[in-house]
Design brief:
- By secondary structure, this protein is mainly alpha-helical.
- Helix content is 83%, strand content 0%.
- The chain has four helices and no strands.
């Protein structure tokens, strides 16, 4: 169950990272409220996952999920670039996430 909680924490990390863009420097009320809420939920879920998972592994996976998800949504929502180096680098992060998960069995 801790892995599911960690995955959900990563999804909420994506939510708050994207929310930062929509909040426009915390100047828009509802996007700011949503962003701060997603931050709190993400940290709460990460904390719960850390009860049963090693901190280094869990933190790296949480950050990796957030980084890859945010980069993908940046391309979809904000027309950010998709050059080959960016795609390869995101793929390497995904390999790292899977490797860390497999290393903790």
């Amino acid at each position: 169950m801790s892995w599911v909680i960690l995955f959900l924490a990563g999804l909420f990390e994506i939510g708050w990272a994207i929310g930062l863009k929509y909040s426009e420097g915390f100047t828009r009320f509802w996007p700011t409220v949503s962003t701060v809420t997603a931050m709190l939920v993400s940290f709460l879920l990460l904390g719960l996952a850390l009860k049963n998972l090693p901190v280094g592994t869990a933190y790296a996976i949480w950050v990796g999920i957030g980084a890859v998800g945010t980069a993908v949504l940046g391309v979809i929502l904000f027309s950010e670039s998709t050059d080959w180096l960016k795609v390869v680098s995101l793929g390497l992060i995904c390999v790292g996430i899977v490797g860390l998960r497999l290393a903790h069995t």
